[in-house]
Amino acid sequence: MRIGFYTFAILLLFVTFVVAMGSEEILDQRPVIGILAGPTMKPYIPKGSCGLPASYVKWTEASGARVVPVPYNLAKNELLFILHRVNGVLLPGGPGKPQIKPDTDYMATVRYILDFALESNRVGRPFALHATCLGFEALSVIISDDNNVLFETDAANMTSRLIDVNMAKSKMLSDPWLQEKYTQHDIAPNYHHYGVRPHVFETGPWKDYMLVATEKDLSGNTFVAVFEHKSFPIFATQFHPEKPAFEWGPVYSATSHQMIAVEAGQRLANNLVSYSRTSLNRFESPELLRQLLIYNYNPLFTYLDTYHFEQTYFFNNSNWIAKL
Ligand SMILES: *[C@@H]1O[C@H](CO)[C@@H](O)[C@H](O)[C@H]1NC(C)=O
Ligand SMILES: *[C@@H]1O[C@H](CO)[C@@H](O)[C@H](O)[C@H]1NC(C)=O
């Protein structure tokens, strides 16, 4: 009896030690984030079929991750190849209204990435996902399985503050500094025509997700500003945490560039990259990773063009496929 107890206690201590050491060791201190490159707007199609504003790349890199672009029109086996190797994915903003049934290539890819993230986390392989603006709207339509989840908002050029709903329970916004800054200061930049009403969280398809914060548009409509998965590192912001530090164009002139706006945005990138460090995914060789990194491409200065972003990367998925 006695010996059994001590043996058990020592074993428990040993197991605790191994688990603690293990979790320290498996943190990936060289995380890689895939960023979805969406369809290019018409005047830019000759430059590449996919585009990616550089602000999302810089936002991610500044938190200590490297970036692999993920063209929205990759074949599924190529997409899966990337998803098995990156530590997480960022779904950036962009033009358009996400619609399902039939899915466009863009929506099919977002759906595939969400399903991958859910399944990976379900089987104990952490996989981080952050969606912003168009990415947020696409996730919302897919989660609801309903195009009508989106309503027209009056928030195409607006910076405002968040209204706390469940920040204390949130993984992303549990930091009291972030809560104070985002609820007391107008530092959340919004550039969207569509939004999601908070009541969706009372419906079945959203049972695994938590409403974290809302905002009001210029006509007083309340829309969802932040949601996240209740158990997994899956986060979505309707507003743009990357813009305060990296976008200066006239179309984005409502953006606050105050230090607190910049820092709040950085902390949201830290959240994505911190969770991505818990992923077990790895590239099998530095050479393979090197071939896929964003550093293989040069962004264009698109500030005064119809693209509006300070700098934009362009890709053709055909360039990509040859590399795999
Ligand atoms: C994409 O393809 C077009 C047409 O072949 C070409 O002009 C353009 O330079 C390519 N873009 C990139 C980024 O390679
Ligand atoms: C956007 O909002 C800013 C500040 O509120 C304003 O100066 C600017 O003219 C607006 N831009 C557009 C395109 O509406």
From TrEMBL:
Main location as per UniProt: secreted
Pfam families attached to this UniProt entry: Peptidase_C26
Protein name: folate gamma-glutamyl hydrolase
Positions annotated as active site in the UniProt record: 133, 240
InterPro entries hit by this protein: Class_I_gatase-like, Pept_C26_g-glut_hydrolase, Peptidase_C26
Protein's organism: Carpediemonas membranifera
Compartment(s) where it occurs, according to its Swiss-Prot or TrEMBL record: Secreted, Extracellular space
Superkingdom, natural source: Eukaryota
Signal sequence range: 1-20
Keywords: Hydrolase, Secreted, Signal
Catalytic activity: (6S)-5,6,7,8-tetrahydrofolyl-(gamma-L-Glu)(n) + (n-1) H2O = (6S)-5,6,7,8-tetrahydrofolate + (n-1) L-glutamate
A cellular component annotation (GO) from this entry: vacuole
The protein's Enzyme Commission number: 3.4.19.9
